[in-house]
Amino acid sequence: MKVANKIETAHSPAEIPNDWFTWKETDKEAAEVVSRPSLSYWQDAWKRLVKNKLAMAGLVFLVLLTIMAIFGPIISPYTVDKTNLPNQFQPPSGDHWFGTDSLGRDVFTRTWFGARISLFVGLMAALIDFTIGIIYGGISGYKGGRADNIMMRIIEILYGLPYLLVVILLLVVLGPSLGTIILALTVTGWVGMARIVRGQVLQIKNYEFVLASRSFGTKTSRIIRKNLIPNTMGPIIVQMTLTVPSAIFAEAFLSFLGLGIQSPHASWGMMANDALGAILSGHWWTLFFPAFFISFTMFAFNVLGDGLQDALDPKLRK
Amino acid sequence: MEKILDVKDLHVTFTTYGGTVKAVRGVNFHLNKGETLAIVGESGCGKSVTSNAIMRLIPDPPGKISNGSIHFHGKDLVRLSEKQMRNIRGVDISMIFQDPMTALNPTLTIGTQLMEGLRQHKKITGEEAKQKALEMMNLVGIPNPEERLKQYPHQFSGGMRQRIVIAMALICEPELLIADEPTTALDVTIQAQILELFNRIQEATGVSIILITHDLGVVAKIADRIAVMYAGKIIEVGTKREIFYQAQHPYTKGLLKSVPRLDLQGEKLTPIDGTPPDLFSPPVGCPFTARCPFAMEVCDKVYPGTTELSDAHKVDCWLQDERAKQLLASTANN
Amino acid sequence: MLKYILKRLLIMAVTLWIIVTLTFVLMVSIPGSPLNEERGTNETVQKNLEAHYNLDEPYHIQYLLYLKSIVTLDFGPSIKQPNQTVNDLLGRGFPISFELGIVTILVAVFSGIILGIVAALKHNGIIDYMAMSLAVLGISIPNFVLATLLIQQLAVKYEIFPVATWSSPAHMVLPIIALATGPMAIIARLTRSTMLEVLTQDYIKMARAKGLSPWKIVFKHALKNALMPVVTIMGTLLAGILTGTFVIEKIFAIPGMGKYFVESINQRDYPVIMGTTVFYSAFLIFMLFLVDIAYGILDPRIKIHKKGGES
Question: How is this protein situated with respect to the membrane (chain A) (predicted)?
């Protein structure tokens, strides 16, 4: 072998003390240690969600809205259905913060009452869709074969049904009320969730890492907790978050058509409908408050859903 | 020998939300005309980033060539504008990618994709472009080229697609071809055919090749020289013979021992323990220290200088220091 | 391909049959049977109804006769408007609604795609940020809210546009903006996200390695791939626009099918509700079918798949 003829380095070798040329204590463990602290899936997702300013703003808005939906009607001196005709179309003032409507009802009280309806309808729809979707999609994906085939055909047919038309039809038959609205919204609404769950289940079945963990003798509960949930819950949670605004929209839309919550109760869609005539005469506040809150609630859920989608995507983990 | 490419002190960094990744940390190498240089290393060692840097295809942001030069025929590619670079890509330097399944656009015909580079860079008629495309299809060994030009990528097998990708890369007759893991995604039998094709093409066109791979079997078949990369640095470079038979760096030796060889039956395969260091905060000393069976105190503290063992053979390792040799000798005596 | 079309046609038929049956159930399950003892209907109407729905027959015969009348596109008389059939209303309202819908789709698709591409190309830049904020806002504001806001601002306050009816191009501007904003925002977001994904694909890197210009890379290599998902959601968007016409036509007093439909709901004019629902459903299902076929034509991979007769 040729003798080394030249050594270049930032430190010339002569500067290196001779006693550095001793064997290093071998530290096998150190070689295996990953140098960055590893965060759990949920910690990591939360960290990323917090960094998303828009999503956090949405979350804060929704928390405040929920608080106001609960306490708003309580702290207000007015009731939701108390009409006071001489007092109609009062602009926002110290007495009526959001003004009064065509029947002299307090818009402030009615707005928070509407928030209750909207949030309740949205959350119930999401929850029911989730439950049915998990069961149907889970069975379909898990069973596979013929059962899956038949169940998917059914989904395909339901998916082809025009959603709002069916909802309208059902409400015409059942008569409008809070319960029938939620029922009508979920009768075909669960189909989307079922599809996603089925897709996730099929994916899990094919994951090599599931097979791998099993062959290492990992406990089933651990496989579910560490592997399955992080890899499959993401799209399901996102779908739930996005079901809420679409249900809120549907409720407002139906109320606007006169098929939603009935007077004297209040819902944002109904308030917007009542305000239609009023804005032409310049009573902007009757429209502004329900319109603002419908839009911003949907906006908040949408940006939160987007944020969750980014935060929960295992592919984006770094 | 004429140097067509000379890379000096290349640094590439990526800024992510978790911090800055120093993916390539001062890489030096050159390429002679008509030769094949293989850059070998584990995944994540920076070999693909190096090849993308030559093409100036580092996505910016988050990536950035933060220092160094890449001289191609005397021009420093790092300093060229994007527009000037476009006239080099595909014409003077071409690139082929790892996975032929994704390297072809599923919605365009093979013919369109083959000819578009040609029509972009050379003033020729459609008919001439088609003739050239047919010629290339023949060169890379695709039967019924006339008919195949009208087909879509999904109508081809993996091996055939890689042949098309190669034809696409060579259609403007580039001087330099960068092949990033060209056989990794293929079946073993197809791999051999594609490697054979590389040899044939090099004979026919005289193109210089930079081959990025982690597979020493591929290297043995077609490389002239080999550069071994670890944690963003080239730690040893030499001719194929020098690397295979006189490897000096413990990492290179480890790499060679972890590959099954038919000629040394019965010899045990020894994996290299541990994992490469995190490039968010690379160690100051030799990055291999933590996994090195010959690690000394000095290795952790200072990065070793380059020792030239021959014209071609260079290694970055403290074991080349006289004092380390004494230490080795005394240990052996005990 | 033929097998695929046949399969789709079968599913379409089943879906339609479900809708028709639902409407029949609606008719017989309304408390007090509106068709039999509708208060305040005059005698001619009552006679027409009896003739059309064969109310003296048992339910299963009624059902079969109802199916037959649907198949022959005879949707029967209206309760509330004497001497008017549902077909009369459809004939008057549909052309207007169709015009509104088509223009809305064109506006939404073109502006949505352009916005999405620009946002993707200027990824993380100020334009991207603004376009996407606008898009989320567009998705979040319900069309009826947007419509009323537009009327209040642009028609009542500043009087730039006329406020109601469908008599000139100026009358069409506000309803189309109100109806197109939501779908446009959805298309823009989808185009942006698929475009971003497509731009990281190896074939785009390959195209760059060939030295193609950014313009060519976007329009020749990326766009077609990025638009495939947009085609798949067209069905949902069409349904949204269609139901959107109900409220938009109501708000802007446009004499289209949607307005009649909303009126029929409010007046509980059941034959009109039934007939319009069936007509809307058939129209929508047919559009979904066309979208599916279009997708098959756009993507070369699917065509071959079907030639193989696998699905």
Answer: Multi-pass membrane protein
CA separation for the pair C123, C106 (Å, rounded):
25
Average pLDDT estimate for B4-18: 86
Q: From the list B90, B102, B152, which residue is nearest C211 (CB)?
A: B90
Q: Which subunits sit against C, judged by 3+ Cβ pairs under 8 A?
A: A, B
The most distant pair of C-alpha atoms in chain C lies apart, rounded to whole Å, by 80
pLDDT surpasses 60 at A296: yes
- Neighbouring C-beta atoms of residue C82, cutoff 10 Å: 13
Do residue C212 and residue B102 have CB atoms under 8 angstroms apart?
Answer: no
Q: Are C251 and C147 in contact (CB under 8 A)?
A: yes
How near does any CA of chain A get to the CA of B330, in Å?
11
Task: State which residues form the domain around B52.
Answer: 3-105+174-333
Identity (one letter) of the amino acid at C212?
Answer: L
Query: Measured between beta carbons, which residues in chain B are less than 8 angstroms from residue A19?
Result: 297
Position C210 scores a pLDDT of: 86
All residues of chain C having their beta carbon less than 8 Å from the beta carbon of residue A162 are: 19, 239, 242-243, 280-281, 284-285
Residue C175 tokens read as: 């309803």
Chain segment B192-246, per-residue pLDDT in tens: 888 888 888 888 888 999 999 888 888 888 889 999 998 889 999 999 989 888 8
Q: Kindly identify which residue of chain B lies nearest to residue C224, measuring between CA atoms.
A: B107
Q: Which chain B residues touch A if contact means CB-CB below 8 Å?
A: 16-18, 246, 273-275, 277-278, 280-281, 289-291, 293-310, 318, 320-324, 326-327, 331
Distance from chain centroid for Cα B146: 33
Read off the amino acid at residue B233: K
CATH number assigned to the domain comprising residue B271: 3.40.50.300
- C135 close to C236: Cβ distance less than 8 angstroms: no
Tell whether B74 is covered by a domain. Answer: yes
Residues in chain C: 311
Distance from CA of A229 to the nearest CA of B (A): 24
C145, C156, C265 ranked by CB distance to A291: nearest: C145
- The residue with tokens 């309740």 is A120
Q: Do C304 and B154 touch (CB under 8 A)?
A: yes
Range with the poorest average pLDDT among A41-45, B35-39, C169-173, C195-199:
A41-45
Pairwise CA distance, residues B79 & B82, whole Å: 9
Q: With contact defined as beta carbons under 8 Å apart, do A158 and A191 qualify? A: yes
Lowest mean pLDDT, pick from A206-210, A283-287, C305-309:
C305-309
> Do C26 and A172 make contact, defined as CB atoms within 8 angstroms?
yes
Asked if the Cβ–Cβ distance from B103 to C300 is below 8 Å, we say no
Taking only the tens place, the pLDDT of each residue in B170-195 is 888 888 999 988 887 777 888 888 88
Residue B136 lies in a domain: no
Integer-rounded Cα Rg, in Å, for chain C is: 24
Structure tokens at A313: 């995507």
CATH architecture of C86-267: Orthogonal Bundle (1.10)
Determine the 3-state secondary structure of B306 from DSSP.
Answer: strand
> In this complex, is the C-beta atom of A306 within 8 Å of any C-beta atom belonging to chain C?
yes
Residue B169 maps to a domain:
no
Nearest to A118 by CA among A175, A72, A158, A169: A72
Q: Is A162 on the interface with C (CB under 8 A)?
A: yes
Q: Where are the domains of chain C?
A: 1-74+272-306, 86-267
Q: How far is CA C243 from CA A125, C74, C143, C239, in A?
A: 20, 23, 10, 6
> How many structural domains comprise chain B?
1
pLDDT at A306 over 90: no
Local structure of residue B95 (DSSP, 8 states):
E
pLDDT of residue A63: 93
A3 inside 8 A of chain C by CB: no
pLDDT tens digits, B270-329: 777 777 777 788 888 888 888 888 888 888 888 888 888 888 899 898 888 888 888 888
